[in-house]
Amino acid sequence: MSRTPNKLPVRGGERKPARVRPYSLTGGRTRFGHVLLVETFVAALEAPEERKELTNGSLNTRVMPEMRAIVELCRRMRTVAEIAALLKMPLGVVRVLLSDLADQGKIRVYGTGTAHGTGRPDRALLEKVLSGLRRL
Amino acid sequence: MDSVVSDAAAYGVSPLLNDEKQLLDDEEQLRPWQQDRTRAPVATKIVVAGGFGVGKTTMVGAVSEIQPLQTEALMTEASEETDDLTGTPDKMTTTVAMDYGRLTLDDDLVLYLFGTPGQQRFWFMWDDLVRGAIGAVVLADTRRLKDCFPALDYFESCGLPYVVAVNHFVGSERFEPDDVREALTIPAHVPVMIMDARRRISAIETLLALVAHALDVTPE
């Protein structure tokens, strides 16, 4: 009669304790209402000292260090890609956090060179880029 | 840069606030538009694509007015043929590095350059990148011409204007643009040029060719 071997590999047994992965901060949300292309400009709407309310609040408005760091960076005009690069966070995560901050009125999202953030630049813009490059 | 790092969990969560003060202090000469939060300049972008080590980082660095930054996109390999990703945490996520450079063209016009890996498995990044882009520079290395095939296929399929720039490396056999055009089956109206990604002037000429080409194919 065969007996159960002493040790069978346990599925998931060698799993390492879960570390907090950046995307878990986003609560699984991947959708965003704002058009946040890599080159989209964002800037903070309030002066830093006026943002005391950021430190407390209800569960869903509580501000994570990442969010605060983003608002700090946005005291200057920044692009989405720049924020991701400076904070060393993946683009997708930064997009979701920015979207939340915009919803909360903490940052402003500006339009990009294309009329609705979709499609392609129009001729007028291309002409401007061309003459700008020629001046370099 | 093409590095593919697979330890996404290494991102720090807490030290952000200290680092960021440093970041604010470290930045090089500020442009007026960066300090005016009431109005944003027009932002536009060009994608620099091509195979591994073809010179994307070099080209972005040659023209950028800032020290090129690196942005990372997090890739979840959930599409792998296994559902059980938990047992292989190292395989779960991959970060794809993307070079990011900037050119202020006017007080109210800023051009961004994004150098991105051209491998087919990174197409998920390209969809996002090409949205609203002026066009793409496809860098080609004649020693490894095949490496730029995926980028060409991709830009042709999505209708993004592109130019082919052959980055000649020291010691590599010289080819004429027409030879490269033929090998890559590039349509006659698409510019194919020889460039040196290390030289700013050469890189800017390539950008000029791309923007002029984009203008040509944009309806009045």
Automatic annotation (TrEMBL), chain B:
Source organism superkingdom: Bacteria
InterPro entries per the UniProt record, alphabetical: Gliding_Motility_GTPase (IPR052705), Gpn (IPR004130), P-loop_NTPase (IPR027417)
Alphabetical list of SUPFAM superfamilies matching this protein: P-loop containing nucleoside triphosphate hydrolases
Keyword set, alphabetical order: GTP-binding, Hydrolase, Nucleotide-binding
Entry-linked Pfam families: ATP_bind_1
Stated family: Belongs to the GPN-loop GTPase family.
Annotated protein name in UniProt: ATP/GTP-binding protein
Lineage, top ranks: Bacteria, Bacillati, Actinomycetota, Actinomycetes, Kitasatosporales
